[in-house]
């Protein structure tokens, strides 16, 4: 949230100019919201793509030590997607 606040603060001049040429407060909120959504989507994709191979590596390392996890590999991804959906619906 603080990163988004800083980005909006840095663009306050641009937002003021848009307001001066007739953009409504709703349009400005919508534009900022879309930008935040795009940033969040990219962050989630990068995080997910980075976490999947690391998770599989961790699982293989644990299995070599005879610590078998009874969790199917798709379950954490499904839980993450469900959590993201709940957050999106709550917003």
From TrEMBL:
InterPro entries per record: ABC3_permease_C
TM region(s), chain numbering: 39-62, 74-90
Domain ABC3 transporter permease C-terminal positions: 2-90
Keywords: Cell membrane, Membrane, Transmembrane, Transmembrane helix
GO cellular component: plasma membrane
Protein's UniProt keywords contain Phosphoprotein: no
Location relative to the cell: Cell membrane
Main location: membrane
Topological category with respect to the lipid bilayer: Multi-pass membrane protein
Name recorded for this polypeptide: ABC transporter permease
């Amino acid at each position: 949230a603080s990163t988004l606040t800083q980005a909006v603060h840095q663009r306050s001049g641009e937002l003021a100019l848009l307001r001066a040429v007739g953009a409504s407060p709703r349009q400005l909120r919508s534009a900022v919201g879309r930008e935040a959504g795009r940033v969040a989507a990219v962050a989630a994709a990068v995080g997910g793509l980075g976490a999947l191979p690391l998770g599989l590596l961790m699982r293989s390392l644990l299995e070599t030590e005879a610590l078998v996890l009874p969790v199917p590999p798709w379950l954490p991804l499904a839980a993450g997607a469900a959590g993201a959906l709940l957050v999106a619906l709550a917003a």
